[in-house]
Specification:
Layout: H1 16-29, E1 35-38, E2 43-45, E3 51-55, H2 58-66, H3 70-78, E4 82-86, H4 88-95, H5 108-117, H6 141-152, H7 156-163, H8 181-195, E5 205-209, H9 215-224, E6 227-232, H10 235-247, E7 254-258, E8 269-275, H11 283-294, E9 297-309, E10 314-315, H12 321-325, E11 331-332, H13 335-344, E12 348-354, H14 356-372, H15 374-381, H16 383-401, E13 406-413
Length: 434
């Protein structure tokens, strides 16, 4: 395969598919900062970049022509018709400045002509079966259950590979430069417990909404003597969480339930944590969500909401890679809107903390875990699913690093009749001992 010298900024097409498809590549990506090779061995782009995109089949072009947005590229990648050689994080970073898919009449003639030259105007293959197409009213109980099942019921053994021993699927907190992922997840759990005041008095009752595999609930019980109810709507998570609780000898302190937050009622708690679940609630349901939570707390009760955020909000639509393959119906809500909604529900917001950079490091650790045991992961869930998670986590890491998305913990308290909050004078009371 013919390429240019490393000091060149852009190679010329080397004939064949590369020459034919150069107009399409430039219509989609602009001036590519990596090398792009094609099924016939020809290539365009930089030969001195951090890696290479390989278009392995004309089917990839067909998918893009019939879905000329992010979804077409996503389908080709998931189907294995586009591959990445090199560090996927660095390849995505190189593409990011020009990766806005360009559409419109101006690009259409060149793109159509390019596809015609390689015989890629016929209908594409069916979409990969890994696509999610939830049915029913958005953010109804039934549809939310479909979305959660798609994302979390991939398999507990697969998540063990990605998440490591902590089995925690949310942003960690790296207190030290040399913290391990497991230590950083324990630090995050302990910070939440302390913000909620669980360390001040053993035996407090904690509700953990979206408890995952039980790690937060177990930490609160083991280290702070809390009595914990954890809820999830993932049957697969429920099974393993209960097994982990029993194995840890915490069954008398931790109760894991298959339950939707909208079915909570008739109980009261001293504190409530919601870690990595809020992205499934949706803007339209946010007010209801915080009203339900507020109704479960008495005076001076605290609630901590830990969630990914986006300035102005971001609804993950069905034409996006993440919306179709990873988080169907997912929504990232502006932290300012979260604060307003909590206040409207009767909370006094006492603390807001960003852990954006910590989530970037967390995701990089997950990508490394997946890469280190790639063959095993593929044997468990298939190549397509493993590729989906690799791309989603790598792209998310870059989003947190460049500030496109954020992560905020918002702490609210229910004021007492006299206005008392029970809050400590300073944040020094929240120093962790994980």
């Amino acid at each position: 395969m013919q390429t240019l010298e490393p000091d060149s900024t852009q190679s010329s097409p080397t004939g064949g598919a590369a020459t034919a498809l150069q107009p399409l590549v430039f219509a989609l990506l602009g001036d590519p900062q990596i090398e792009i090779s094609f099924w016939d061995g020809t290539c365009i782009g930089r030969s001195d970049g951090p890696g290479r995109l390989t278009v392995l089949s004309p089917n990839a072009v067909r998918r893009i022509m019939w879905a000329p947005d992010e979804l077409g590229v996503a389908r080709a990648y998931v189907a294995g018709e586009i591959d990445v050689d090199g560090d996927v994080l660095e390849v995505l970073r190189a593409l990011r400045p020009t990766a806005t898919v360009r559409s419109g009449l101006a690009a259409a003639p060149a793109a159509l002509a390019a596809a015609r030259r390689v015989g890629a105007l016929s209908a594409p293959p069916p979409p990969p079966p890994e696509e999610a197409r939830p049915r029913g009213r958005r953010h109804s109980k039934q549809r939310d259950a479909q979305a959660v099942t798609h994302h979390y019921d991939v398999g507990n053994d697969f998540y063990r590979i990605v998440l490591g021993p902590a089995m925690t699927y949310s942003c960690a907190r790296f207190e030290r430069a040399d913290s391990t992922l497991e230590e950083a997840q324990a630090s995050k759990h302990d910070l939440i417990c302390r913000k909620l005041g669980l360390h001040e008095r053993p035996g407090q009752r904690l509700l953990d909404i979206g408890c995952g595999w039980g790690s937060m609930a177990m930490h609160a019980a083991r280290h702070h003597g809390a009595k914990v109810v954890g809820i999830t709507i993932s049957p697969t998570q429920l099974e393993l969480a209960r097994a982990r609780v029993a194995e840890a000898g915490l069954a008398d302190q931790v109760d894991i339930r298959l339950q939707d937050y909208r079915d909570l009622g008739g109980e009261s708690f001293d504190a409530i944590s919601s870690v990595g679940m809020f992205e499934h609630v949706g803007n339209e349901r946010m007010g209801e969500y915080f009203r339900v939570v507020r109704g479960l707390l008495g005076p001076r009760g605290r609630m901590l909401n830990h969630a990914i955020s986006a300035i102005g909000g971001s609804r993950l639509g069905g034409r996006t890679f993440v919306g179709r393959y990873v988080f169907p119906d997912g929504e990232l809500i502006d932290v300012g809107e979260v604060v307003l909604a909590m206040e409207a529900a009767g909370f006094e917001v006492r603390d807001v903390e960003s852990l954006r950079e910590h989530y970037a490091r967390t995701l990089r650790a997950w990508v490394a875990n997946l890469g280190a045991d790639w063959d095993h992961a593929v044997s468990l869930v298939g190549a397509a699913r493993a590729r989906i998670w690799q791309l989603y986590m790598a792209g998310s890491a870059i989003g947190f690093e460049d500030g496109g998305i954020g992560l905020h913990q918002v702490l609210g308290v229910v004021p007492g009749p006299d206005g008392g909050s029970g809050m400590p004078r300073t944040r020094d009371n929240w120093r962790t001992e994980a």
